Amino acid sequence: MSDAFSWINLRFLLDGLWVTIQVSIVSIIFSMILGGIAGTVRYSKVPMLSKIMGIIVDIIRNLPLLLIIFFTYFALPQIGIKLNIFWAAVAALTIFESAMLSEIFRAGLNAVPSGQTEAGMSSGLTYVQTLTMIVLPQAFKSMLPAILSQLISLIKDTSLAVIISLPELTHNAKIIYGQNTNYVIPMFIAMTAMYFVVCYLLSLVSNFLETSKYNY
């Protein structure tokens, strides 16, 4: 059984972990942008647009991520949008995580006392200036731990992309133990350790930021 942890197998697993991290980083960047826009629009209560955005967010949040992955990889090509496996996974995770992050942004913005907005606008700033210079900086500090927690969930969710053969950690482990069934338990132990290390380190950062927020 110790053969399961040969350097060749470990390197193959680390290659998968690297793909997991790459997909996660790219997805969280796009999700932060789109989620931030969606959350701000909903917070600002823009006529019609906020309601439409709210409906879209609610629909996405109540869909299984696996269904969205199937959609980006199998359905989009039917309308002329063909993505490779990597970008199909990124697109699916971005769509799903944007909806989740939009609620975090909206909650964070709502947590800032309305007097801050009133003070900013009474000092001569426009609504957009008040939002970007006064409200968002305060809100972001309280949102950061929740955003990191969502990132942890995103890293774990990348394992669902095994269904479209994305060469991430779970996929590579599956290939290894598919070649030798005696490697099933060792591969699950290795996957558990790698996911745990990455997610636990992020959880420590999240806990530190949460503690710092209350000590500030």
How does this model look, in words?
With 216 residues, the chain is mainly α. Helices cover 80% and strands 0% of the residues. It has eight helices and no strands. The chain has helices spanning 7-44, 49-61, 65-75, 85-111, 114-122, 127-157, 169-179, 184-215. The longest helix is centred in the first third of the chain and has 38 residues, at 7-44. It is elongated and about 70 Å long. The termini are far apart. The mean pLDDT is 88. The chain crosses the membrane at residues 16-38, 59-79, 85-105, 184-209. It is found in: Cell membrane. It holds the Pfam family BPD_transp_1.
- Rg measurement, Å: 21 Å
How many helices? 8
- Main sheet, how many strands, which sense, barrel? none
| Helix-strand category | mainly alpha
How helical, in percent, are the residues? over 70%
Topology:
Blueprint: H1 7-44, H2 49-61, H3 65-75, H4 85-111, H5 114-122, H6 127-157, H7 169-179, H8 184-215
Helix pairs in contact: 1-2, 1-4, 1-7, 2-4, 3-4, 4-6, 5-6, 6-8, 7-8
Keywords: Cell membrane, Membrane, Transmembrane, Transmembrane helix, Transport
Family: Belongs to the binding-protein-dependent transport system permease family.
InterPro entries: AA_ABC_transptr_permease_3TM (IPR010065), ArtM/GltK/GlnP/TcyL/YhdX-like (IPR043429), MetI-like (IPR000515), MetI-like_sf (IPR035906)
